[in-house]
Protein 1
Amino acid sequence: MNAASHSVIDPVELTRDLIRIPSVTPADEGAMDVLERALTGLGFACRRMVFEGPSGVGHDARIENLYARRGTASPNLCFAGHTDVVPIGDLKAWSAGPFEGETRDGVLYGRGAVDMKGGIAAWVAAVSRVLARDEIEGSLSFLITGDEEGPALHGTKRVVQTLAAEGEVIDACVVGEPSSAHHLGDMIKVGRRGSLNTWITVFGKQGHVAYPDRAANPTPVIARLLARLDAHVLDEGYPEFPPSNLEITTIDVGNPASNIIPAEAKARLNIRFNPTHTGDGLIDWLNREAGALQAETGLRIELEHMCSGEAFLTEPGVFVSAVQDAVEAVLGRRPEASTTGGTSDARFIRSLCPVLELGLVGQTMHQVDERVPEAELRALTDAYERVITTVLERLQP
Ligand SMILES: [Zn+2]
């Protein structure tokens, strides 16, 4: 396909078009159609991937996803993002319509402006400019989901599983989450801590406090278990990550009587862990500790675990420095490589390829009056354009 056979896309107009679609998770409302039209016009082969199943919040969900690729050569540089947005909260508290895309004093208002319809539009616009100039050496792709802000069961995770099973090769991926802290381009995210929740129940035998030999009190047992877990040093941390941390978040016995030994004691804890650990490794450790105490005391201890994301780190290297160099060349500041913050879909993509997050300033994300200065959208487009050409150049086989 010839370069320049299409028009250059304006990032502000595309952001506005996307904001005007109320795609609150899990609803799509045509958001993916808008994107597919733009990408088809740029010569991408678009493939819709619809996944259905339990939503995790009580009903079934039907989720739109899109994988689009232009070219077959290596390297394949992917952009990942989500078209779904969080609910608007209190409509009366908004000074502009959350789905109108109004610009006031050069600032574009609307749900998804920074998280992350603006980021998607900026990358699409950057791609249109790159392609208008010259044919690329390599491939560009998009992995877009409609299920990031929700339970994320039928989004990026399943697209990644499908692509991996098919042998699709992606060499590097930029996720367009609003990674910047205070100024555009001041921060990229190169990793995240993992998160594990564990629910603990110790089963005793109820009885009268005056006749302890006829009862079995679970409270001292859960206290001993929690004290052991809390005293354990998981690791010392390393340059990119603080030490892994276990927090006991609640202890519940719920016993209203002063003369009863309770039958059950419950507790919950959360572990935020660095890549020294895996969710399964931590679960094994917790189960061993509980098993040992159960053997000592004869009281049954049950644990339930839910790992909502593994820890990962994209090591410094050609990809990370190519992105840092490109951002610095365009925006005049070198982004700090950080591992702070919550989880994102990067946790699924890291099984395919090196991944990092680069996007707008996240200050108003998930808030009332979410907004982005139009100048910042254009500046991000400039930075993305340089990122695309620099990464493709440096990852040439
Ligand atoms: Zn987001």
Protein 2
Amino acid sequence: MNPNMSRRQLVRHTAWFGAAVGFSVVGGEVISHVAAAAERSHARPTLRFAQISDSHIGFTGAPNPDVTGTFGHAIEQVNNLGYTPDFVVHTGDLTHLSTPGQFDQVKQMMGALKTPQVFTVPGEHDSVDDTGQKYRNAFGVGSVGDGWYSFDIAGVHVIALVNTLNLRKLGHLGADQLDFVRKDVARLPSDTPIIVFSHIPLFAMYPNWGWGTDDAAQALSYLRRFSSVTCLNGHVHQLFSKTEGKVTFYSGTTTAYPLPRPGDGPAPKPVTLPAGKLRDALGIREVSYTPGETALALKERALQ
Ligand SMILES: [Fe+2]
Ligand SMILES: [Fe+2]
């Protein structure tokens, strides 16, 4: 190995020769290996967006005594990426307890995002007492059914799904939504890159804790013919990635508080980290699409 190779070059080198998708920490910045591979092409991305998740506005407790402050920092960080993201997506658990005040606050805070468009999907914390009615009143403009929707941007097709509506439907899409996905993609050529947003993972990350979607396989079956499918979710409050065929799943982190690793303990309870360590567990994600690249490029950034 070249002793002069910088750590960053080493990551790219490893990425180029390694087939696995994974994450490497370089100077506080987590770079997915697929991102490094995409950077090699020298082509320019035509779509760049940011993902934030699980702000849990209204949460109080030792794991994060100031979720409003950390969410505000995440928004500032998105506003200082050095470019204007084409959009920002919040992948759910915007609020902690779905109160009107919490929805007002999170909506007002996201109004400060410097981006042309903000997209959201609901988390189970956004539909604790009304199967998502207050969520849809605040964020459901342009959605269909119980809050799902899709759109096209820069040659990419984006599908936003709802798998959190109530306890009975937690980790569940349902027949209406599956039908929506089937019809939605029917017209698309198979080389259209697909991005799917959901709150709960569409892969079985840890079903014992509700970290999976029981009928996701049906939705994914409609996407199987596409050459590039990227699923971005929240809910698990930690980075994780998995590839199944042409579909890659990326769990995002949170701006509020960490949860345990899958199966680490009896239940996914908020974790209190040692003093000064919280921000390292929180963060934002940058995503870009470059024509000609099968994989999207992701950069995970810890909260500054
Ligand atoms: Fe959450
Ligand atoms: Fe959640």
